[in-house]
Amino acid sequence: MTMLGIIRRNWALRLSVVMNVFVLLYVCVHIGSLGPWIEEAPTSWAQPLVEVSKATELSATASLPEGSKAGSTRETGIGSIQDGKSAASSAATKETAALTMRDKTGKDNEEVQGGKSGNATTTQKQQESVSTTMGSMTLEEAIPCNDRSTTPKTALRGDYWVLYNYVPMSTKVRCWESVTYTTHADYTFLDNLEPLLERWQAPVSVALYAPGTDFQPTVDTIKYLRICGSPLVSQLVTFHVFFSTKHIPKTVPSSSKVLSEGWNCTLPPPWANVTVSKMYKSEKKLLYPVNVGRNIAREWAPTHYVLPSDIELYPSPDLASRFLEMIRRRDQQPLYKPNPKVFPLSIFEVSADSQVPRNKTQLQKMLKAKTAIPFHKKVCSGCHNVPRSKEWQEAPETEGLHVFHVGKRTGAFVHWEPIFIGTNNDPLYDERLSWEGKSDKMTQGYTLCVLDYDFLILDNAFLVHKPGIKTFKKDPVRDMLTGKTNALIKKIIMPELKVIYGTRKGCAV
Ligand SMILES: *[C@@H]1O[C@H](CO)[C@@H](O)[C@H](O)[C@H]1NC(C)=O
Ligand SMILES: *[C@@H]1O[C@H](CO)[C@@H](O)[C@H](O)[C@H]1NC(C)=O
Ligand SMILES: *[C@@H]1O[C@H](CO)[C@@H](O)[C@H](O)[C@H]1NC(C)=O
Ligand SMILES: *[C@@H]1O[C@H](CO)[C@@H](O)[C@H](O)[C@H]1NC(C)=O
């Protein structure tokens, strides 16, 4: 229960930060000083702030059962912001519209789970009174969404059997309450889960590829992590498992069996000393269906906002809560543009003997010392070069989170494979592409470009790869597969995308 104490203290801290930000913001809004972006100023951006807030003020307080508000997150620490009142736009254009029109809504609390104590603390009341004077809305109202079930469900998905929510997180989370890190892996990558959680402190949805005899060690790994690892694993991680119809395991225990069985924690982790070439997927020469995993994890995330990422990429601490705070604050001009939007993160790698930096200031020192470099600089710099990256690296760290620059996937960034916070309204990943064939995020990037997405690059948030800098290695098998994939994209997928989404000048795969 020391966790709880830490979380409570974090809360007090966050709250004071939030309040400071509010005061600052109040001053900013009234002086009219805007951030570092230099896009055209929409004329009406400040208006809905007042209109929406007036309209929603009453319903906000009237329709929310006190208990449900205070209860669920505070006890679990899912890295979210509680109330406070402010609204924000979100990734989809539809939602931006919904925002300005919403008034008597906020009634998706019928299914309120938990809400145990009903103890509305003074801190919450304080926060509400501060924000009441600001005149805006709650996070719940700022993010219109429907809660998702975490009940296990087995279904066929194309050529794959999927055990959705096979082992669900124990914490109940409302869809507006947090951000889910969604990812894919096989069990040998799950050593990354704890360092990831330690920084993320919010829900994780992971799809595990487990064909044939890789299935049992996968289940063992889930048990090992939940029973012997950090309590955050069982609290915050939902495991989905999938395998091809041609590579069914011998037996598949039920979810409840996996949840109820124990594990001997003196045994080494199941991923220790695995010889990759002896794994089922290697012996059968199976390609890794990276995008099937990505889509499963994203579609079954319990929250509206998601960060689809690769499990070796560790986010800067407090990212989920700071992001939601920005959404709730609603003071970022680019949020009001009608374009659909996503929030890309800058990505770095650090040398094998380095610690992963915990904040931008630390990161900047490491960049200067050359112990950190931009991600894949030595492998595929065009894929991960972020617009205004030089300016980003030079800009000093500030409080909270803001939009640093609004970029597009055109010009020098036409092959960009951004990793971003978005929603399930964004295009999915093409499940015909494999990890081995590379370019697995390119067709999604192309679609985002054609749909005229804005890429709202965040200023103080970033991802860092597990320590160790990747260098280019020649791999004839992979080169052959890359060639096949490129042909598939060019001859089959691109013509489809052109029919379905049309074209736009400057967009390419
Ligand atoms: C709220 O919590 C405080 C301290 O935890 C406790 O003393 C108080 O009785 C609680 N109030 C209600 C209404 O539960
Ligand atoms: C747990 O594993 C260790 C090491 O293999 C073994 O010595 C011990 O007897 C096991 N404990 C139980 C309860 O099975
Ligand atoms: C892993 O293998 C090495 C050498 O084969 C051995 O020394 C080590 O004890 C093994 N570790 C575990 C955790 O089994
Ligand atoms: C960044 O992290 C370092 C090391 O943990 C710490 O000393 C420093 O105060 C932090 N800076 C900011 C701005 O939070």
Automatic annotation (TrEMBL):
Residues that span the membrane, as ranges: 12-38
Keyword Nucleotide-binding: no
Record keyword Transmembrane present: yes
Pfam families in UniProt: Glyco_transf_49
Organism listed in the record: Neodiprion lecontei (Redheaded pine sawfly)
Compositionally biased tracts (Basic and acidic residues): 101-110
Protein's recorded name: Beta-1,4-glucuronyltransferase 1
Biased composition (Low complexity): 85-98
Record field: compositional bias (Polar residues): 118-136
Lineage: Eukaryota, Metazoa, Ecdysozoa, Arthropoda, Hexapoda
